[in-house]
Amino acid sequence: MENLLEYGVKEKPRDCSPAAEPNQKPGRQTSGLSTVYATELTFDPSTAHKRIALTENFTKASVSDEHINYPDCPGRFAVCSQVLASKGFSTGRHYWEVRLTNINFIGVGLAYSSMDRKGPTSRLGRNVQSWCVEWFDVGLSVWHNSSETVLANPNPKRVGVLLDCEAGTATFYRVAERAYPFHTIKFPYPAFLEAIYPAFWIFSNGSSITFCKMQQ
User: Fold this and answer.
1) Which is it for strands 158-164 and 147-151: parallel, antiparallel or unpaired?
2) Alpha-carbon span 196 to 96, nearest angstrom
3) Residue 66: which of 2, 124, 122, 10 has the closest Cα?
4) DSSP assignment, residue 133?
5) CA distance linking residue 114 with residue 93, whole number of Å
6) In what order do the strands lie in the sheet with 208-211?
7) Distance (Å, whole) CA 161 – CA 184
8) Quick one: a GO cellular component term (predicted)?
9) Which of 89, 121, 90, 84 minimizes the C-alpha distance to 190?
10) Which residues contact 112 (CB under 8 A, 6 or more apart)?
11) Domain architecture of the chain: domains with CATH
């Protein structure tokens, strides 16, 4: 797994502001999970590896056949084909969903802004600043600080993430006719001393991750 590095998404992020309402729980919606904490997100092109193509108003990330002419900047991933969302969180409750295409080599996770972007530990889940639920071939694992925990694979086409900064947790859901939780990350205390960002890894051509339009 550790040898699968390098790859790489295009456009300009739009403004989006999260809506969070405390003291409520996710319920039902057209996507399968209702979102009283629904958060509209886009990908941040200043973080995208040069093999990541960003399309559909920065809501879709996929692997490009060629390097994209992104400008060099300190926040850009240089080793792994990864990208962060345009918004991070340190307080409140926030929920988003992504649609996955060809999930053989895809990771959905969270990362602090201080995560390394260029060094040998710049892959999601291989450092203390990031966590990654990773589909690799037919298996599913969660990674943190280079430690792997194997999970049962729900093989989803749509994944929801509920980040609860006050509780210090992030719960991952398989979204179908309803939402089925399949893993919860408990962040070490004290959590969220800096903003944490939705983070993504895409390796193979034909794979893509798209932010879903959320409905209140």
Assistant:
1) unpaired
2) 14
3) 10
4) E
5) 21
6) 52-55, 60-63, 208-211, 93-101, 158-164, 169-175, 179-186
7) 9
8) cytoplasm
9) 90
10) 129, 130, 194, 195, 196, 197
11) 52-211 (2.60.120.920)
Q: How far is CA 63 from the centre of its chain?
A: 15
Residue 141, CA distances (Å) to 109, 168, 197 in order: 11, 20, 20
Convert 21-55 to b/e letters by CB count within 10 Å (16 or more is b).
eeeeebeebebbbbbbbbbbbbbbbebbbbbbbbe
pLDDT tens, residue by residue, 35-81: 458 999 999 999 999 999 999 999 999 999 889 999 999 999 999 99
Name the token pair of 91. Answer: 């307080």
CB 109 within 8 A of CB 120: no
Note the pLDDT tens digit of each residue in 104-116. Answer: 899 999 999 999 9
Please tell me the distance from the alpha carbon of residue 68 to that of residue 167, in angstroms, as a whole number: 39
